[in-house]
Known about the structure:
Strand content: under 5%
Structural class: mainly alpha
Oligomer: single chain
Amino acid sequence: MPDDSGLHDRDWYAWTQDQAARLRAWPEQLRPNGLDVKEIGGFRAELGRLFEDSPSLFAQREVLFLKAWQEARRELGRALALEAPEAARRFAAAIGPDAPPGHELDGQILNEDWLPAPPAP
């Protein structure tokens, strides 16, 4: 395992990406608390129940998704600006204020059979 001592302090965003890559590299059955896969399934199931109980909410899913995407992008940008200004600049250049979400709502995010591919080694 490569030495990442001090990476958190030097480049917070790079550290988060490194940590995520390390967790994804673990065999699924060894991931702490079923990280990622079990949580994603739970969130999707909860959304499914909400949509069944409230069809008008389901009809607004695209609008709500885009709003949540914009809020998450903005919040991450703020957090990076406080913790790692250089990472914040790279993030803003890569994912600007008008950048669309990286995944399709119905075909991917809400599709219970879909999971993102692991990052390339």
